[in-house]
Amino acid sequence: MDNIFLTDTLSDKELYLSMIGKTTDAILDAFNSSKAYTGPEPEELKKIIHMDSILPEKGIGFDAMFDLVKEKILPNMLRPSSTDYMPHLHSPALIESLSAEQIISAYNQSMDSWDQAPAATEIEVEVTKHLCKLYGYDDNADGVFTSGGSQSNQTAIILARDWFCNEILKHDVKKYGLPENYRKLRMYTSEISHFSMEKSAHILGLGYESVVKLPVDSRKKIDMDAFRKLLEKDIADGNIPFLAVATVGTTDFGSIDPIAEMKEICEKNNMWLHADAAYGSGVILSKEYSCRVADLMLCDSITVDFHKMFLLNISASAVLIKDGKDFDALTIHADYLNREEDEEDGYTNLVGKSLQTTRRFDALKVWTSFLMRGRNGWDEIISTSMKNAQYFHSVLVKDCGFAVVTEPEISSVVFRTVGKDLTGEENDEVNKKIRRILLHKHGIVVGQTISDERVCLKFTLLNPMVTSEKLDGLVSLIKKIAEEIRRAG
Questions:
Q1: Which pLDDT score is estimated for 223?
Q2: Where are any strands of DSSP class E within 347-487?
């Protein structure tokens, strides 16, 4: 079996170069439209993709296989780098992160032990140190990369639970499992927080009932008076508060919960404060707007996502912990992987901080993009996206044909078209149709969500290449489509 890996032999290098060259050419050829999506609707796409078998008795070789890739897949791929793409917290990928991904895939490092990823391990350690400093933590802090915001949140919730049980309840969860009164444990989070809160509670054996969903105010932030009252009631009922989660950039609205007020409550009640800043963590690099997330340093843990505002390719996330010793809750040693004797001699095995064993070298993407762009470059990227949201909001609120949910704090704008002669339900249907028409007739992908029981459209403006002229044109197009739908009845 010749030429199956990239090695130091000339023939392997030549084959790799040929395959990567053909792949690069095909990708460049497929970027033949400025639209976000030019593929068909679901049923037609299913027919295009379907094959009777993808495992023939005899392989068809690279060229024939890649012809199928060019025929079936590349023309129908989504293009998040298009300025017509704005539905989700799903960013375009900075061009240098594509270079980093090539290194990551070619070397295929596994981030669990030093002897599987020597330089990669040291880079991740270096990057997490700098991230902790960036968010205001001292030298006692630590962090680890994860698959995404959900896993970062889950990691933080596990550490919070173990810290609380060990330090406050004097019960060793790691050794003995959940305490007898575990059904009374409670964590508090916004009613519009990410679903990973409930999912984590389920995985931890606490159940959905342990998650107290706090009402939000008109700005979509946690109602602090309601938080205090619910907390007091839980304590009076014999429940055990152990954690509060501040969302720093809610998924739909980009709203930022009041961290300082939440910290006071947590300190008073011996609770851990976690910040789900998967969205809003990027704001720290904006000179003009960083004050909006300055209180992150008060939190005991922070979720940071780099495949959202930081514009790196999927996946890239991290969880930062104010007291790195709290990672001990996840540490277990195995003779075949992370031997204690090696760690005593200075070999760092990152598996001791991670829910995953095998992990990718995602820290490289942060390292390369931070160095390449610098603070000034990142300030321009982040600030531009936030200013775009402010501009778009200002246009919508002046137009009686639209209703806007709340002023953006980061870069998301949720709104709906409103026909005064239509009922709420009829307007809901108009907004649903607008999204589908934009997608399939114009190649423009926008989001849809619910606010106050009404269907809304959502622009998540992560792409700094979007201009005010572009936004003006989208407003005009949406108004035109809405009017056509209403006339058609």
A1: 98
A2: 402-404, 412-417, 445-451, 454-460
